[in-house]
Amino acid sequence: MLQKKWTSLLAMLMALFVLLVPLAQPAAPVEAASKTRVFKTELGKLVIKGTPKRIVTLSMAGTDAVVTLGLKPVGYTISNSGTVPTYLRNKLKGVPSVGALSAPSLERIAALKPDLIIIDHEFEFHKAIIPQLKKIAPVAGFRANSYKEAMNQLLVLGDILGRKAKAKSFVNQFYRLDHSAHRPKASTVKEYIVKGKGLKGAKIKIVITDGKASVTHYTAVQKSGSFEAPVNVSTLRDGTLTVSVTQIIKGQKHSRVQKKIIKDTKAPSVPVITNKGWINAKQQNAYAVQGTAEPHSAVKVSLSDGKQRITKTVHADGKGRFRAVIDARKLAEGEITVSAVSVDSAGNQSGQSKKVLRKDVSIEAPELLNEGYINAFNYEAYPVTGTGTPGEKVVVEAADGKKSVSASGLVDEDGNYEVEINTSSLKDGKITIRVKTIDQAGNESRMASVVLIKSLTSPAKPSIENKGYVNASADATAYEVTGKGEPGAEVEVTLFAIVRDRTRLLGRGTKSKGDFLWETSSQGDW
pTM of the predicted model, to two decimals? Predict the structure, then answer.
């Protein structure tokens, strides 16, 4: 019965791990071949010289243990029915049998010249032949009435066989129980998933508590070595929860792990979008949606023109500020809906906030009507005039090549503008006037420009060539005043008559040629 008990108990264990350990011949022992080691066992003192290389196992438990440690026995016993467990069959290929479990052959054992024999020291027939076996080689007992006992004895056997590290690694893996538990959120409180890894077939007890109330759930480890269970934690308070997962094998608690998690079912506040107005041509390549949300939450921002939607997720900083830069070039002009939702670290999602903006990326260039000169009369408030789209801002710049000045105004409701600009700081000579308009969306038009001449220098004094008299002939009705002046300059001629200390204006006129001729009537009442 004991052998059968081990077969059903340890076989399940070893089947999980034996495939993970490659079989090999024993490595060169750390100890010198002549070094003697002494172990205290339940069979008494065990004296081993060096590290055993040729091992004969007389029980399936012992065979399992040797194979698990990565070794291959030189001989083993088969079951009384003449079979070998499937999971061991390939591992023992080429290894001779020394007989059945209840009737091993001492002659076969001796012929293999073992340096260690492993028995089940609670099996009556094995107890009966211990004296004969000890005459062949040192004898070690290995039994497995429980998982814990099997693991403790595996550690001792690993030390005897020079596989102490491998035995310890196996035992640690045997007792390992991994579980993962993320933060419960509003959408998962009724089916909060606890999952992890354990030993195939083991029973799993899950207890989750908030310090005052608790919930318990049972599941089992599947053939894959994993478990997963939905636990209803809706009755537990928000805050810190303790998740305890216990692995139970054959009614015995073999391992337990605990993990602290946070239950958070409160949705974050709705984000606030601070953008206003327009998306213009300059911004559309990298339009920044800004606002505030729950600190450190993930904020999902979307722009939509009704047909297309562009989405980007960013994270709010410690003060709740967020900024999502989105390429909006694919969106059509017109109304653009901006929306945002935030998701906290637990996965809870806020309500949605929305704002409607307008996308406008087109604008016409203004017309500039100025020509001619900037002179001493208008240079401090030179009027720049033209036409544009009503309501648009007009920006005027005047530059002499080294320095520039600017001024601004608005296009009136009739589509006209006049902006006065002070050019006093610019030098005389060529002055470039540039004009652009800016619409409500912030789009800037192309520049309209014209080159004028600034001149504040007075022209040379004109000379009058007339001499003599204004007589009664044709002069009286069309008197010609002639002379010379600066080319291109306008000449203003004024004719006065002085009679009896009284002055009378007879006429005034202008000419714009270098040589000027002016006619005026000299008739009038004196």
Answer: 0.47
